[in-house]
């Protein structure tokens, strides 16, 4: 007799709901893109100074992994936790890009 783990079944139901709910799948893809881009392209030192300024825990962003239960939940929780530092980083990074682009000669 096979007894299915209730937590695993519940995780599968929630995962299926999130993927099929209108606009949720697109939102999760965007959140994951932010986490992946930040994880791969920016050193942790950039974020740690902003985390200290805002009094946030020095935690890295988490990317969800399909084979790990609750990883989407953990990704969203961490993104919410670090929202102030990430937004500030993006604003500072955008300012740097604007200055670089404005200093380039026009064609």
Share in β-strands: under 5%
- What is the global morphology? elongated
H/E order of the elements?
A: HHHHH
Helix content: over 70%
Low-confidence segments, given as residue ranges, are none
Quaternary state of this entry equals single chain
Q: With helices defined by DSSP (H or I, 4 residues minimum), what is the helix count? A: 5
Measured between the Cα atoms of the first and last residue, the distance is: 73 Å
The total of beta strands comes to: 0
Whole-number mean pLDDT: 80
> Roughly how many Å is the radius of gyration?
18 Å
Describe the sheet with the most strands: none
Structural class of the helix and strand makeup?
Answer: mainly alpha
Tell me about this structure:
With 107 residues, this protein is an all-alpha fold. 71% of the residues lie in helices and 0% in strands. It contains five helices and no strands. Helix 3 crosses helix 5 (83-103). The radius of gyration is 18 Å and the shape is elongated.
Offer a few descriptive terms.
0% strand; mainly alpha; 107 residues; 5 helices; 71% helix
Question: Secondary structure elements and their pairing?
Answer:
Blueprint: H1 6-20, H2 24-41, H3 44-54, H4 71-81, H5 83-103
Helix pairs in contact: 2-4, 3-5
Compact description:
By secondary structure, the chain is mainly alpha-helical. It is built from 5 helices and no strands. Helices cover 71% and strands 0% of the residues.
